[in-house]
Amino acid sequence: MIRLRPTLKLHAKPLADTDIARITTFLRIGRERLGHDWEIATDGGHDVLGHLARPLQYEDVIDALSDLERRLSRQTGMPPPGARFRLRRWPAHALLQVDAERPRLASFLLSARPVDLDELARLGRVDPSACESFVAALMAAGVLDVTENVASRPDAAGFVGGGALGEIRRGLGLR
Amino acid sequence: MTTMPPHKIVFTGPPGVGKTTAIAMLSDIPPVVTDVPNTDPALRKEHTTVGLDFGQVDLADGQCVRLFGTPGQLRFEFMWQIIATDALGLVILIDNSRPDPLDDLATCLDAYQHLLPTMNCAVGIGRIPDCPQPSVDRFSELLAARGLVFPVLPVDVRRREDVLALVDTVLIQAEMRA
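The joint structure predicted for all components is written out below.
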C-alpha cells in the first residue's frame, strides 16, 4: 500500500490576513483529511517538523503548530509563546542602555510573580515588539528564568499606576 | 477618620555621594539639612550631614512622600536602619570616585541586610563618566553574589531625571508587590 504524505507548508513568520485566509482555505481539505497521514515540513520538504496521523483533526493541527512555534522560538532565541519571565540577576548595563525604557521593563521583571510578554508590554506601556526583543536579549544573556505552560494569573497591569502609589507617581511627575 | 502614615523614601550611601542633592532634586520644599563643617580630611568636602536630610513631595490628595537622607559616615550606622524601617523604598547611592566603591556598597548591604529581602531598592552609581571603573556591572555582580537582584543604574544626582529613574524602579517594585 502506498501511503501518501501531503505536506502542510508553513512559514515561521507573522501571517498577513491574506495568508491566514489562504491557510484557512487550504485546511478545508474535505475528505482528503480522512485518507492520508500528514507531515509538517519546511518549504521544499527538506525537514519534516511534525507528523499528523489520519484522520486530520483540527485540534491536532493547532497542537502541532503550537508545539512547532515553541520549538522554533527556542531555536531562534525568541521568547516562547505564553511563557512567563523573571530576572535572576540585574542585566548588564550594555543591554539596558540600548533603550531608555529597558531599565523600567527590567524592574517589572524583578517581581516574585513572573510576567508574560503581553503583560510586560502593558505594564511598561511600550510596543510588544520592544518587549519581545528585550526579553530575547535577556534570555540570550542567561539572566532570565523562563516558566512555560503556567496557568494565567491576574494581570498586574490593572493596578500598577493606581491607588496611593499612583498618587506618588503623579506627584513626582512620573507616568 | 484614619490617616495613612506618610510614605517615605530613604536615600543612603557613604559621605559625599550626593544624598542631599538627590533629595533637593525631588523635594517640593527646601530640604532640611543637618550639615556641619567637616573635620574629616578624607571626605574632601566642606560640610557633612550628621543628623539626617529631609525633603517632601506633596501629593494632590493632601498626602505627602517624605524623603530622608541618612548621615553618610559609618559612625552613624546605628541610625541607618532606624530611618529605613517601614520605608517604601531605599535608594543606595555610590560614588565611583571614592577609593573602594564596591566596598562602600558592601558596607550598605551589610547594614541593611535584615531589611533588604523585603525592601524595594535601587542602586545608583555616581561619577561614572570620570571614573568608569569598577563598571556598573560589577555592582550587579556583587548584589548577585549575595542573592540580591536590584536595579543598578548610573546616576548624576544633579539631574532630576536620573534621580527619578531610580525612584521609578523602586515604585515599580512596590507596585508589583501590591
